[in-house]
Design brief:
The structure holds two protein chains of two kinds. Chain A is built from five helices and 41 strands. By secondary structure, chain A is mostly beta strands. By secondary structure, chain B is α+β, with helices and mostly antiparallel strands. The longest helix of chain B is centred in the N-terminal third of the chain and has 24 residues, at 2-25. Classes of the chains: A mainly beta, B alpha+beta.
Chain lengths: 813, 282
């Protein structure tokens, strides 16, 4: 019990901090479960209530001892100090912090109990009912292939990956086909991941470089309701926070179907903060079916230290991968046996990708700043249409169809910084805050797309060859006004400025000029005579985006909210013309919903239900000829979702269902490819068995993930197939050793990940096919794997020492 | 107990809210526009009496076709409206051309490529002297989207001596009797920088206003009479006869040129009709 620590600290803190402590004291003495809670402690320099609120509702504080070393996070809980003591006090502890401190075990050092302080949390307060911070916790046990898979824990998100293991997942979210990130803003520890001007799609976001074992929390903000959300936050944002709570070391080896091997090691030195870790991953597989092998190596490092009143965090990551891709197959060819279900038309499809990044975060109670530098390379070969597009044009020697295979490549440097500060005051003893932030990012790429001769990697034509430089400067003001304890208005204005400077190294292409040599591209002549083969385009645009959320509550844990937001997606450099104002894709979004947070004993319940509507002025829809999304007309989408998370040290359950309906504004037709209904259930169980070996209990860990996706509307009034899959993972752990069985697609369902209706001609039939037909990319069949895990460190040593404490060495959810 | 009651109350509130929002959202269904349809397609010659087809040409020849076999297919249905060009010769445009210039692009009488919304990816060898319809063994596939024109793609057929079309007959003018035989074949070597093989292969712009629908029937009638309209068969008599005693027309002959132009003509030779499913007997 650390109540006395709070009282001692309170002598030196401002009046509002005193109120926080007073409320907490009242709470601790009045709640029956107070024995499992300790009181929030705040830095004297910080505003107690805001810090407490931030901590309670968002990511949670970093807790450090006065000497800067780490303190067991479970020793600290937080309360909403903004509520006056006369009102019923809502208890809003973070679920993961609900677990009591394990008592000392002989021979194992106990966590220290001492004066602690909270460094102000960099996360903003929740925006609307769909803003959800998801502690990964035990749900990491649900079969997960990569960090991207963790997104499935968020309501309404459905992921597919038909282009290979090293390729970013395609994301469906709330009526959006966000492709590979165009509509969902990704960040990892504050560093943006989406790549503007990427050849495979503006906003391509690949998170495979993140080792899932080091993902601490995932915050998914569905909708653009937070002024902190920047470019690509059309459908929302996904914010990964990395860290390792279970200190010690862990080495896991997995061997499974199709020659799959994965070795991962995580070392989190004891006594250090959760942001200090070293993790590495090596993986390879022959892949299911044809041409799906991959190799991957990734290293993630973090170092976190508190220097005086500033938390310093350095993160670095390096990632390499090479992968094959089977691409798409035609349904009629599969039915007739011309190509196998797991087959491919072109074995040259696939790609490789690397990422190397470094970031620095500085957090104090008043200012948070992040700086980053990233270098990326990317290459992909894909063929959606076979032999359809290469018709002989003027200026070309006679030729037949040489193949539509696309080779995309990109190298990019990404430099940026963001910072914000909070101004705090009180009104009628309630905290009022104003956050002011700035954001700057510069990305320079080297982007090409070429066509390859069928079955080779020899290019025969250049589609584009750009050097795009994009700068994004943004600033925002985000206020939080609380006229009464039950009413909060959050919001403000964000203004984004985008500047483009694009060097087109192949400005004259696709048009024949009389007198020019045959089969030449990137000509240095046009109708007026000689010209340089290059041209440069510049453009700039400004976009103000107001955003606001009105929250009422909590009433017995129930909070109602109403949200409005305006956002935008920057324009793809490919579409820019000289001197134009950058044509953004503005969006308007609204949401109404309610959330319920309750904590009782070791149980925590988080539930939410909401309805939403979003209008996009210029949408992007998949274009098979380009192998990426192309501009389309305006769209409107609406729907509803419900989600539930129930957590207990022994059981963690998450479930959600989302309905979405998206239509084009001009025709009223349904937007294709977006699944109307997505449901997901994740459950993880941690259970001590009545079996002891050498006085240490054996524990059972079991987890499952169930996915249901309704048939997707496809072009020409067709629907795809219903998807229903189950993944499972079972393991037994005895002290340091854990052995498990890992299974994805448990019932071996044969289904399609990507489903499309478009025109192709793979020369698989007697004559050319020119009518749109069904294509699909195939999802993996059942895959089994055996995992062996070695846990090292003090937590591991305590595991199973006493049934009552068994679960403490496994992080509480 | 109070907490439990709060949780139950809140859960009930959330459930009601969720039910209401889902109920509000669920009726909104719809489609993505147009539908995939299957249709039957048949090909035959024009109606006439007897096994041979006899007709008078503009040049004064009486031609009797005794054999005429064509490789028909694949066939594609395009959204693009056929435009008249000088090449196809709309003789009735007259004074209108002064006000509305004839549009043409790349010599194909078309602006743009249009979009294919129906196809029959099969080839039939058809006796076009017989009005009896031959039906493609597989249904055509299309979309319920308005079609404006039909494209025929010409492929050689092994059973036709690697040609697209073979004909044989007799032409008479006065006392001159010219038994003839000939064929038209696609030769990839004909492709040039200006005339790609794809372009040579296609007969584009055969008028066919229709909207394909499930179970519908499309009929293509082939009339070879226009293919000999401008032929001067007397030129063939300079050639030596073959084993059957016929003069063979070949590239460079005006008969070949006339025959090729007739085959490629979008008017007269090819006639497409559409029968909606309600009146189709299947």
């Amino acid at each position: 019990m650390q109540l006395h620590a709070c009282r001692a600290s309170a002598k030196s803190v401002p009046p509002f901090a005193m109120l926080a402590c007073a409320s907490a004291t009242w709470l601790a003495s009045s709640q029956a479960h107070a024995q499992s809670m300790d009181v929030v402690v705040v830095d004297a320099a910080a505003d107690a209530s805001t810090a407490a609120y931030d901590a309670a509702t968002a990511e949670g504080p970093s807790v450090v001892a006065s000497d800067g070393s780490a303190v067991d996070a479970s020793a600290v809980s937080v309360v909403d100090a903004a509520v006056p003591s006369s009102a019923p006090l809502p208890v809003e502890p973070l679920p993961r912090e609900a677990a009591p401190i394990p008592p000392p075990v002989a021979g194992v050092p106990a966590p220290r109990e001492q004066g602690v302080r909270v460094i102000a949390n960099p996360s903003s307060a929740p925006r609307g009912a769909s803003d959800q911070t998801i502690p990964i916790g035990r749900l990491l046990e649900v079969p997960t292939q990569n960090a991207g898979d963790l997104l499935r824990l968020a309501p309404g998100i459905f992921l597919v990956n038909g282009l290979g293991e090293g390729h970013a997942e395609q994301i469906f979210l709330r009526g959006f086909d966000a492709r590979f990130g165009q509509d969902l803003a990704f960040s990892v520890d504050g560093v943006p991941v989406n790549e503007p001007g990427h050849p495979h799609g503006h906003g391509y976001a690949d998170t495979h470089w993140v080792i899932p074992e080091v993902v601490d929390t995932l915050r998914v903000q569905e909708g653009p309701f937070d002024p902190r959300q920047g470019d690509f936050a059309v459908a929302g944002s996904a914010l990964y926070s990395l860290g390792v709570r279970t200190r010690g070391a862990r080495v896991q080896y997995r061997v499974g179907s199709f020659g799959t091997h994965r070795l991962v090691g995580v070392f989190a030195p004891e006594g250090e903060l959760r942001g200090t870790y070293v993790a590495a991953e090596l993986a390879r597989s022959d892949g299911y079916g044809d041409n799906r092998s991959f190799e991957r190596a990734s290293a993630n490092l973090g170092y976190e230290r508190v220097l005086g009143s500033v938390r310093v965090r350095v993160s670095a990551a390096s990632y390499l991968t090479r992968y094959g891709s089977a691409g798409v197959v035609r349904e009629d060819d599969v039915r007739s046996g011309r190509v196998g279900f797991f087959g491919t038309y072109d074995r040259t499809q696939g790609g490789d990708s690397t990422r190397h990044g470094l970031s620095l975060s500085l957090d104090s109670s008043r200012v948070n700043a992040t700086l980053w530098a990233t270098y990326r390379t990317y290459a992909l070969r894909e063929n959606y249409t076979g032999f359809l597009l290469d018709t002989q044009r003027a200026g070309q020697s006679p030729h037949g169809q040489r193949g539509d295979a696309i080779a995309q490549s990109n190298q990019s440097f990404d430099l940026g910084a963001q910072a914000h500060t909070k101004l705090r005051t009180t009104l009628r003893a309630l905290p009022q805050t104003l956050e002011v932030g700035v954001f700057g990012r510069f990305v320079q790429g080297d982007v090409t797309q070429q066509r390859l001769r069928a079955g080779t990697v020899v290019p025969y034509a250049t589609d584009f060859d750009f050097v795009p430089a994009m700068a994004n400067v943004a600033m925002y003001a985000d206020g939080e006004l609380r006229p009464w304890w039950w009413l909060t208005l959050r919001g403000g204005l964000r203004v984004d400025a985008f500047h483009y400077n694009v060097l087109d190294r192949c400005a004259v292409r696709g048009t024949y000029v009389r007198g020019a040599p045959l089969d030449a591209e990137c000509l240095s002549v046009d109708r007026a005579g000689y010209r340089s083969p290059t041209s440069r385009s510049t453009a700039m645009g400004l976009l103000p985006q107001p955003r606001a959320v009105l929250a009422m509550g909590p009433f017995a844990g129930l909070t109602f909210s109403l949200a409005y937001g305006s956002g935008a997606r920057s324009v793809d450099a490919t579409y820019l013309a000289d001197g134009e104002r950058a044509p953004f894709s503005p969006i308007q979004a609204g949401e109404v919903g309610a959330t319920l947070h309750r904590h009782r004993g070791a149980w925590t319940v988080d539930a939410r239900a909401l309805g939403y509507i979003t209008h996009v002025e210029r949408d992007l829809i998949f274009d098979e000829a380009q192998g990426r999304n192309g501009l389309a007309n305006g769209t409107t989408r609406g729907g509803a979702l419900a989600a539930l998370r129930v957590s207990h040290p022994r059981l963690d359950l998450g479930a959600h269902v989302t309905y979405a309906h998206a239509v084009f504004d001009d025709t009223g037709l349904v937007v294709p490819y977006v699944p109307p209904l997505v449901a997901r259930v994740d459950a993880a169980l941690n259970w001590p068995l009545p079996l002891k070996i050498r006085d240490r209990r054996v524990t059972l860990q079991a987890a499952t993930g169930l996915t249901f996706v309704s048939p997707r509307p496809l072009p020409f009034s067709e629907f795809g197939e219903l998807i229903a899959t189950a993944d499972a993972n079972v393991s037994l752990r005895w002290t340091h050793v854990e052995i498990g069985l890992f299974c994805t697609n448990l019932f071996d369902a044969q289904y399609a990940w990507g489903q499309f209706n478009f025109v192709s001609d793979f020369m698989s039939q007697e004559f050319a096919t020119r009518v749109a037909t069904r294509h699909f990319s195939v999802a993996p069949p059942r895959q089994l794997a055996l995992t062996v895990t070695m846990h090292l460190g003090a937590d591991a040593a305590r595991h199973g020492a006493d049934a009552r404490h068994t679960d403490h060495s496994v992080e509480a959810p | 107990m109070t907490t439990v009651r709060h949780v139950l109350t809140a859960s009930a509130t959330l459930s009601v809210l969720a039910a209401l929002t889902f109920a509000a959202a669920m009726p909104a269904c719809g489609n993505t526009g147009f539908e995939r349809v299957h249709f039957r397609a048949s090909v035959g010659g024009v109606a006439h009496e007897g096994e041979t087809l006899t007709f008078e040409t503009r040049a004064g020849w009486t031609v009797t076709l005794e054999r005429a076999r064509l490789a028909i297919g694949p066939i594609y249905f395009n959204t693009i409206v056929p435009l008249q060009s000088h090449a196809t010769g709309d003789l009735h445009r007259g004074w209108r051309s002064w006000f509305v210039p004839i549009a043409s692009a790349n010599g194909e009488s078309h602006i743009g490529q249009g979009r294919i919304v129906g196809e029959i990816t099969e080839q039939l060898e058809v006796d076009v002297l017989s009005p009896t319809l031959q039906t493609f063994s597989r249904d055509g596939i299309g979309l319920s989207e308005p079609v404006a024109s039909v494209e025929l793609w010409l492929y050689n057929r092994a059973s036709l001596d690697n040609a697209v079309a073979t004909v044989a007959g007799t032409a008479r003018r006065g006392e001159l009797v010219v038994p003839f035989v000939g064929q038209f074949a696609m030769d990839p070597a004909d492709a040039t920088t200006e005339q790609p093989l794809d372009s040579l292969r296609r007969i584009r712009g055969i008028a066919a206003p229709m909207t394909l629908s499930e179970g519908a029937s499309v009929t293509l009638r082939v009339d070879l009479r226009p293919a000999f309209a401008n032929a001067d068969f007397s030129e063939l008599t300079a050639h030596t006869r073959d084993r059957e005693g016929r003069y063979r027309f070949a590239r460079g002959d005006n008969v070949f040129a006339s025959f090729q132009a007739g085959l490629r003509s979008t008017q007269g030779t090819w006639n497409v009709s559409f029968t909606a499913p309600s009146t189709t007997t299947r």
